[in-house]
Amino acid sequence: MNPLQKYLDANQVTRYQIYKATGLAQTTLANAVKPEKPLAGQTVKVIKAVADTLGKTPGQVLDDLLALNANS
Length: 72
What we know:
With 72 residues, the protein is mainly α. It has 5 helices and no strands. Helix 4 packs across helix 5 (58-70). 19% of the residues are buried.
């Protein structure tokens, strides 16, 4: 499973919620959670949108994603 999708599931947030909260295109979010998309391929725009939706900083989200990816 894609690391970003695992993170969203763990935080009980959907791509639709991110789209509604930030206006980030749904196609951008769909591409970000494709199974073949590596964590290193994520954009700052996507990380920032997730962070804004969760009330975290982009750095916190990235740290969480890196830890989740390392434990996989």
